[in-house]
Specification:
379 residues, 12 helices, 2 domains, seven-stranded mixed sheet, single chain, Rossmann fold
Length: 379
């Protein structure tokens, strides 16, 4: 779907969901949600919100949680940490929620973790991968693996699977996500015997990368690592290919959305992510079929992470036997050990999930860009 249409659809869906949340009944279980439903990374927020809504629909159709209906109250933070804080305060003060899913990016999530910990609000971050997200305390969880693991996956994949010896990196030096991935890619690639021949940076919101790409072309790399979000990666890839750099490009989960928002310039592209829609796992196949029926598109990993986040919360509330005892829900969540869409999930001492990552490749099928499974990398 093209961006303008995608965002318009997202805005309409957000409005409808806010309305439904406001009509929650007194005996409903209300879950807060904070996502970027508009702005530069709206594709992430809309996908995660859709995954959560699908999970809630299934849960309610199956009798709810202990016989009670679940309602999501979603808030749009546009990917802005200040708005994330306002959304958090609205959900906790006005809507009285004690469980929140969100936000999507690390910076926005970190903006509210100390508040959630202080107020004993259980916070589950579907896709915030920066290590410090859970540092605020034991009420903070995440459903995704963290940047050190993901960056290492990229470096090992480039060296071992792509047989690259010389790597170039182009990253956003003002984005913790991008910097963290870059640092861990370098360590893994060098440990595998590779050489970093160019390490170039830019500033958030830059759109012209030709000066950095000229230096990269001169360095003659075997692979280029691009640790950023899909909208920026699409711009960089066009300029890389325009300068004749046709080597493989490698990235991380921020690339989700490229297949819908880029062209042939991202072919020969590979990225680490949390699940693959073409999995043979019946659980994944059922999810993909239900999502396509409801939303008309193949779910990306953010949808799967949102879906898993809601089921993690459902299972924890059922084990805790309470919707109001936040400490009991926290303890039940920490004790998780079960099979979900994105793998068998348990939590380490920092409430980070212990699970595998997959690497997918962007390919052309029926004149359409899609992702296909390439390999799995274990922790």
């Amino acid at each position: 779907m093209k961006r303008a249409g995608f965002l318009a659809s997202a805005a309409l869906c957000a409005a409808l969901l806010v309305f439904s949340g406001c009509n929650a009944k007194s005996d409903d279980i209300t879950i807060g949600g904070i996502f970027p439903l508009s702005g530069d990374v709206a594709a992430y927020g809309v996908a995660a919100r859709n995954g959560i809504e699908l999970a809630i629909e299934e849960i309610n159709n199956d009798g709810g949680i202990n016989g009670r209906r679940v309602v999501l109250i979603p808030e749009d933070d546009t990917g802005n940490p200040e708005i994330t804080v306002n959304a958090y305060r609205k959900l906790t003060a006005r809507n009285k929620v004690n469980v929140i899913i969100g936000s999507l990016t690390s910076g926005c999530t970190i903006a509210i973790t100390s508040l959630a910990q202080a107020q004993q609000v259980v916070l589950v971050a579907p896709a915030a991968t920066a290590p410090e997200v859970t540092d605020a305390g034991d009420f903070i969880f995440r459903a995704c693996f963290i940047d050190p693991f993901q960056g290492a996956v990229g470096g090992a994949f480039a060296a071992n699977e792509l047989r690259a010896k010389r790597a170039a990196i182009l990253y956003d030096n003002g984005n913790d996500y991008s910097v963290g991935l870059k640092d861990n890619f370098i360590t893994a690639f060098q440990n595998a015997g590779g050489l970093i021949v160019a390490n170039e940076s830019y500033i958030t919101k830059d759109v012209d990368f030709n000066a950095q790409i000229t230096k990269i072309r001169t360095a003659n790399p075997d692979v280029v690592y691009l640790p950023d979000y899909y909208s920026t990666v699409a711009l960089i890839a066009k300029q890389l290919r325009a300068q004749g750099i046709n080597t493989p490009i490698v990235g991380a989960d921020g690339w989700d959305g490229l297949a819908e928002n880029a062209g042939d310039e991202v072919l020969n592209g590979f990225y680490s992510t949390h699940y693959v829609s073409d999995s043979t796992d019946p659980r994944v196949q059922n999810f993909v079929a239900a999502y396509q029926l409801k939303y008309g598109s193949v779910p990306v990993s953010f949808a799967a992470l949102g879906y898993d986040s809601m089921y993690l919360i459902r299972d924890a509330i059922e084990r805790a036997g309470s919707t109001t005892d936040s400490a009991a829900i926290r303890d039940a969540l920490a004790a998780t050990n079960g099979a979900y869409l994105t793998g068998n999930l348990s939590f380490d001492e920092k409430r980070n999930p212990i699970k595998s990552a997959v690497v997918v490749e962007l390919v052309k099928q029926d004149d359409k860009l899609v992702t296909v499974y390439k390999t799995t990398v274990n922790p």
